[in-house]
Amino acid sequence: MAKGSVSIHVERCKACGFCVEFCPTKVLALSSAFNSKGYHPPQMVAPEKCSGCDLCGMYCPDFAIFGYRLNAADSANAPDKEATDAR
Amino acid sequence: MSTIPINPVLPFLRTDRMPTIWCPGCGIGTTVNCFARALLDSGVDLKHLAIVSGIGCTGRVAGYVKLDSFHTTHGRAIPFATGLKLANPKLNVVVYSGDGDLSAIGGNHLIHAARRNIDIKVICVNNLIYAMTGGQTAPTTPGHVITSTHPYGTFDPNFNLPHLVEAAGAVYVARWTTFHVRQIARSMAEVFKKPGFCFIEILSPCPTLYQRRNKMGDGLDTMKFYKEHSKIKNGVSTSEVGLTRNGDIIVGKFVDRDRSDYLTMAHDQFVEALGDRYVDECAAECCEEGI
Ligand SMILES: Cc1ncc(C[n+]2csc(CCOP(=O)(O)OP(=O)(O)O)c2C)c(N)n1
Ligand code: SF4
Ligand code: SF4
Ligand code: SF4
Ligand SMILES: [Mg+2]
Which of A22, A37, A70, B64 has the fewest CB atoms within 10 Å, i.e. the most exposed one? Predict the structure, then answer.
């Protein structure tokens, strides 16, 4: 069960790839979808591996992603991408 | 259901001004992210904090932080910050600017603020170039680099900024790259508590105006280069940390020493010269009003 999750602000992303590259457990990948500026924002491809360490959040130059820890009850129903996009 | 926390850095940012002007793969935003985390971790009083930037891509930081901030003229962030600090000694004053702003047009201010040990914290985002104006050679540009003003490659020696500011008198000198996010945040939090002239150099990718002409790939390529070629050497002599185009990057905390800062020296001198006739007006009045 995942210990953490990420919240992604799709519209703020410029697809630099820093979060994808430096996630220690390779949770993320740039998606094939576009945001309105034409960039490919990241998505979780291995959500079960997310520790919520927030390294992705520290690397992001555009404040478009951050990681957070889930407590045991939360990890059963980790929020899906749509639910987190608004932040 | 789980509650999703908000991004911890948002309270420190003017999100209404975003997206930022910074290019994809630019490292300046990463440094700001680290700065916001340092503010969180250090618990520094935001009412007594001011950020001063000069002009340049890095100079834009002043406009994106939700703090008392000043976007001053090119090269003059340090003199502006000096005035701010001397008039309001209880303010924590941070100068946040680029390598060109701080070491070229503002180079004289840099060395004299270090010599006088003015109690300001200088964060220098070093992308090795004048980025905003089109990629001209800066005093920090290493040799054998193509720039808009050196189309056949640079040949004049570059400044080793940690060595320069240590020689001039800085009490705290560190260098990191934008790969070293945790270390940057830790150094920033450390200097908020350190009296005197502190200097943190952060090497940062500029894919648009440094890398492109030199076929160095994108911002992520430079981040990977930082990861592979940085050597952490805390306490190493700053004479050994000069930068070359493709060589290793020595990072770490190089200097952490103590000496009286400018206001303390001024106070001591006035007391010595004037004795009881000296009234420290600022300590007596303006600082108590809670700026
Ligand atoms: C008095 C004056 N001279 C020159 C300029 C043009 N100018 C604007 S930014 C800049 C250099 C910026 O380089 P740096 O400080 O390294 O910032 P960067 O854009 O690389 O972050 C120059 C020369 C100016 N704005 N004002
Ligand atoms: S929070 Fe940590 S583990 Fe999760 S995606 Fe971000 S970097 Fe990876
Ligand atoms: S680090 Fe930020 S801007 Fe870069 S790809 Fe990830 S979310 Fe997008
Ligand atoms: S020109 Fe260079 S320094 Fe300026 S925003 Fe673009 S990448 Fe960053
Ligand atoms: Mg520069």
Answer: A37
Asked if B61 and B94 touch (Cβ cutoff 8 Å), the reply is no
Question: Residue B83, SS3?
Answer: helix
Mutation test of ligand 4: which of B53, B128, B209 has the most ligand atoms closer than 8 Å to its C-beta? B209
The residue range of the domain holding A71 is: 4-76
Q: Is residue B20's pLDDT more than 60?
A: yes
Q: B195: cis peptide before it, omega within 30°?
A: no
Across the interface, do B30 and A57 touch by the CB < 8 Å criterion? no
User: In sequence order, what are the beta bridge partners of B250?
Assistant: B231
For residue A43, what is the domain's CATH number? 3.30.70.20
| Residue B78, helix vs strand vs coil | helix
Token pair, residue B30, equals 């990463």
SS3 B113: helix
Q: Is the dihedral of CA B272, B273, B279, B282 positive or negative?
A: negative
Domains and CATH numbers, chain B: 10-257 (3.40.50.970), 260-291 (no CATH)
Q: Which of B58, B60, B208 to mutate to test the pocket of ligand 4 (most atoms within 8 A of CB)?
A: B208
**Residues B208-264: tens digit of each pLDDT:** 999 999 999 999 999 999 999 999 999 999 999 999 999 999 999 999 999 999 999
SS3 B68: strand
B49: tokens are 């904090």
CB contact under 8 A, B220 and A17: yes
For the record, the structure tokens of A60 come out as 């992001």
- Going by alpha carbons, the residue nearest to atom 2 of ligand 2 is A53
Produce one character per residue of A17-52: b if its CB has 16 or more CB atoms within 10 Å, e if not: bbbbbbbeeebbebbeeebeeebbbbbbeebebbbb
